[in-house]
Design a protein that fits this description.
The protein has 2 domains: 5-127 and 272-310, Rossmann fold (3-Layer(aba) Sandwich), CATH 3.40.50.2300; 135-270 and 314-343, Rossmann fold, CATH 3.40.50. The chain has 13 helices and 13 strands. It has helices at residues 5-17, 48-62, 76-89, 102-112, 135-152, 172-187, 202-215, 228-240, 254-261, 273-288, 318-323, 329-332, 338-343; strands spanning 18-19, 34-39, 66-71, 93-96, 117-120, 129-133, 162-164, 192-195, 222-224, 268-270, 294-295, 305-308, 311-313. Strands 3-2-4-5-6-12 form a 6-stranded parallel beta sheet, with helices on both faces. A 3-stranded parallel beta sheet has the order 8-7-9, with helices on one face. Helix 2 packs parallel to helix 10 and helix 3 packs parallel to helix 4 (102-112).
Length: 347
């Protein structure tokens, strides 16, 4: 299936973010041809095993390097153990998806051995590079999703009853998502009627939202949800109470896209993992070759940041995610969603 032009724009932005210097006499010299990669979990609905693992492995092996990819299974102790084993065997570069702060200690050990560290998707203190989507922009899109939904419902954000939720505060991205969202909501004069504790666990988010719903007596006009998983559990509580309000999200997950098509979620932010995996692989390959990458952005702490461009997806452009190969119509268009798929050209 032909890639959509939307996906091509993202790919171009990824290439622009990482400028190749081609200097083989870099001060960073790879000691091994192995790329050591640690993924955080294999939970149902997460992208790491079905998406990032094969994309990273394919790119690295095609370039002639070994990819040692392990999964911490949501266990910070296992994360540390895997890292020790990999470093003992030898790594030319480490590419880490942080897990509840475990990546910082690993980064310190790796750098002590002269191994460069790429923080992938989530920032890690002490990493040499960070590859992710522009997290502040993601948050801004989520905040705008709430405002767009309120406007469509004829609600004034200054007086609307909005529930705010956010991701796990141990995840460095969560603050950037929230800060981005608040910059948009604050500018519009919106205020939280209830603020939930931060979490990435969907069922926990559902429980917290139910408590918010009870405390507010069901007087809720919109929900700032940090991702599709949280949003799905929040929407389940709303649906149980016969209520539909604007809800934000991100990840363009199957559940999120279905909820967007059904009008239960206002929008989701699409972050094509293939684009991110390509940018990270390109960076890792340069380091393994002993080259010095030149990156055009930095985090607040000065870490070079390969920042990719996210995409807002509403019902009308769910088909673009399918065309890009990051969702299957057969998965999305179940019996309950078939009519919405037909209406929005998802096939």
């Amino acid at each position: 299936m032909k890639k959509s032009s939307l996906f091509a724009v993202v790919a171009v932005s990824a290439s622009a973010a990482l400028l190749l210097s081609g200097c083989s006499n870099s001060s960073t010299t790879a000691k091994s041809t192995r790329a050591c990669i640690i993924l955080p979990d294999a939970d149902s609905g997460t992208r790491w095993e079905p998406g990032d693992r094969p994309a990273l492995e394919s790119a690295l092996t095609a370039a002639g390097f070994e990819a040692d990819i392990q999964n911490a299974q949501n266990d910070t102790s296992k994360f540390a153990t895997i890292a020790d084993q990999q470093l003992t065997k030898g790594c030319g570069v480490m590419l880490l998806v942080d897990l509840q702060g475990a990546g910082a200690a690993v980064a310190t050990k790796a750098k002590a051995q002269g191994v460069p560290v790429i923080a992938y998707d989530r920032p890690i203190t002490g990493a040499d590079y960070y590859v992710s989507f522009d997290n502040t922009k993601v948050g801004e899109m989520e905040g705008q999703t709430v405002l767009d939904g309120l406007a469509a419902a004829g609600k004034d954000p200054k007086t609307a009853s909005i529930v705010y939720s956010s991701g796990d505060p141990a995840d460095g991205n969560a603050k950037m998502f929230l800060d981005g969202a608040l910059s948009v909501l604050d500018a519009a004069g919106a205020k939280a009627a209830f603020t939930m504790a931060g979490t990435w666990d969907g069922p926990t988010a559902g429980t917290e939202f139910e408590q918010a719903y009870t405390k507010l007596g069901g007087n809720i006009d919109a929900v700032l949800a940090p991702n599709d998983n949280n949003a799905a559990n929040i929407i389940a509580i709303l649906s149980k109470n016969g209520k539909t309000v604007p809800v934000s999200g991100q990840d363009a997950s199957v559940a999120g896209l279905q909820n967007v098509l059904l009008g239960l979620q206002t929008a989701t932010v699409y972050k094509p993992f293939k684009t991110e995996a390509t940018a990270a692989s390109d960076l890792a390959i340069q380091l393994l070759k002993g080259e010095t990458p030149t990156v055009d952005k930095t985090l607040a702490d000065g870490t070079p940041f390969v920042a990719l461009t996210p995409i807002l997806v509403k019902a009308a452009n769910v088909k673009d995610v399918v065309a890009a190969g990051d969702a299957k119509a057969s998965d999305l268009c179940t019996t309950a969603v078939a009519a919405a798929c037909a209406t929005n050209g998802v096939q």
